[in-house]
Fold this protein.
Amino acid sequence: MSRIPKKFADLKAQGRKALIPFITAGDTEPALTVPLMHALVEGGADIIELGVPFSDPMADGPTIQRSSERALAHKVRLRDVIAMVAEFRKTNADTPVVLMGYANPIEAMGYDLFCREARAAGVDGVLTVDYPPEEAGEFTAKLAEHELDPIFLFSPTTPESRLDAIARQARGFVYYVSLKGVTGAANLDLAEVAAKLPRIRAHCNLPVGVGFGIRDAETAARVAAVADAVVIGSRIVQEIEQSPRERVADNVKQFVAGVRAALDKQ
């Protein structure tokens, strides 16, 4: 079993919501990734979403696209990302790590080899944006064989007929994309989020995380009032992009700590 179910169970027992920050592996340089992962945990992260750099990230806005470009300039590939998780695990055995990315690198590596190496490194879940449930059966079966959780996306336009299909394959938690657009967009409608989550929960008994468009502690707290987890990506990547190298880990830690404090007050 992955670390994800236990993490959510522990948080539920404490009356707390999960904070899931995203960073792109290898941004702005490979040597920063593991220190940044530890900074996220020190700031209060419950689960880390680690992006696998990709040249054509269809779901990502300009901020995360630039982070992939910076990582790819250092030739960071899927195997490198897995190695970063293994390095992180040398001093952190508890914080769940979810790899987020696209199908091509996994297809190139092969399902079996990817799953074996990801599991051995300490990965807990895999969110692959462009694997729809109708085409993901072989992959999710291989993930299950290696005790890795497939994380699936729901969107504002997901029809009722697909909710059950997604819920049948999902493990760990499900991720509700809170807006019609790419990561980092600024048109988050909190009322719509609150209205959609009961419909998702009627079909799926997993925790529901909400992401896309959450850029500050206040918004995160309002989302956490109706969700089980809050996912923040572009705002953290922006902090990495704009911070001096000697300050980047501290700046990221401080931002995450502010969000964590807001979640714990709500």
